[in-house]
């Protein structure tokens, strides 16, 4: 029981936070604007106050910190709610910047890693949405795009070295991966045509520098895995790029021969590197063994994908029959099973190439041939004792079974039943006392949830959907409890990942509304917290999670958050009361913001504008709008560079609107998002024609309402 107490607290906090986010995203119309703001502030006080009280009373540092993180998340939800209430940009960079500041302060004050991770995520989101807003379009030149991506690389490089110095492994790995991933993207010819050659050189230089500086040294298995993975992704991406650019010039046969040769060279070089490393390092070193296995796996997968895809095209061009590839794939599998003494990388490549080639033609083979491959996969599963090969063969068997079911059953009508049955088989295999399969326990767990996940969210019957969701949740909860008690870290972490995926899937699932999910999760979270607290009766003696000095600094951050929430609400309410009311014509669309819910994306008639070549994206301009005989304010003349404050007093029935030029065809005023209650956006999209906007003397606008006719706005 003691081992499940922390699990219960963590789960209850996640449920409560999910319920809060779902509730705010639903945009329920039962509360007024000020009531929603007060509710958001109250939730923050509840989390932060609970963190302090439980820390002092129960002496549970883990619960204290989790509630503190919950408070930081609830502040982000409050900022998003203010944007939703007053129709600010959907997923605006300002939302994430405002959220980032106290999160970063809490990371420095508490030295708690989740705050550092949250700050990193918010920092990246702020950067990305500043340069690529979700609700508006900004035109940029290729060089400007390149500078943006280089900025991401440089910033993540700084984060990498900072995280290393502070011992924050998760941040270190994330930043290391992002640096290499964005350099790969920048090397694509079709992304940055002018600069792709230099970006290829830069990526290879950074990869080599990473290898000699970090990956080659002991104790850097995580960086080694990421580095080799990125190298494999780079090789595959270059293969795809060359296939597009050179297929017309070289012809089909020439290209496939070239690719097969490239794969063999890559495989040979990898085997040579692995053998040479084995001679230079101690075989007793755990770090060396991990690094060597990582190298072999990356080389294997890269070579196998190159070989299988190239062989498929080559054999089809020669024989004009997919069965030729099926025969070759069976030959590969037989050779891999027989040649047990060859280098592991070469043997793995034979296996994976055979499996991938077979999967590529399964859908067009007759049933007898499919059964033949099913038997072959089962035999390999039984004769091989190495965990990686068992994983490959078992994955292949599952894929063949899914192919058989989709071909011989009414897949569209019964896919949920089939997937659920296969999923339950995976969980049953965890209980089977068959020693040769025990290496696959983690695989059974992962495939069990992966197979059940589509069944829980893909379908039109909401009652059936709820049944599968309850099944998924029950199995997930059981896995969390069991592996928490057994202290099996990998399986416990995997169960947490699938739990978070479940909550994420529920957010985008339309079988039942966000409001209903919100109430359900809040009730579950509160009841679960109360139940765990009832069983957690042990009296503890010990220090608080934080010293009095740190608690004082945390309190200052909390007051800053509450002060901002109140100030924003008052400032917006004042602007609504004192500003000039105008009606603008619009052209709506309908997406969804992650934190703020459904919204209608608007394009205003007054915002139509094509600047000259000298006007850059982001230039501040002012549009003059004048009231016509119908009461609609329409643009008069061309936009002028500068702010409304510089234009002097407007004439009667005239208003100045300040916005930013997008560099292409329009001006954005910051009122392009109108948040609506869940499920009503499509109807508004079809009918809305006019928007009521409140404009301040400085030209800043707040969107108040959107309607389909003028009479309802006047």
From TrEMBL:
User: What is the designated name of this protein?
Assistant: DUF2157 domain-containing protein
InterPro entries found in the cross-reference section: DUF2157, GDYXXLXY
Q: Per UniProt, which keywords does this protein have? A: Membrane, Transmembrane, Transmembrane helix
Can you give the residue ranges of the DUF2157 domain?
11-114
Q: Does the keyword Transmembrane apply?
A: yes
**Which sequence ranges are marked TM in the entry?**
7-25, 37-54, 66-86, 92-110, 117-140, 146-163, 170-191, 197-215, 222-240, 255-275, 295-317, 323-339, 368-384, 391-409, 415-432, 444-460, 466-483, 495-512, 518-535
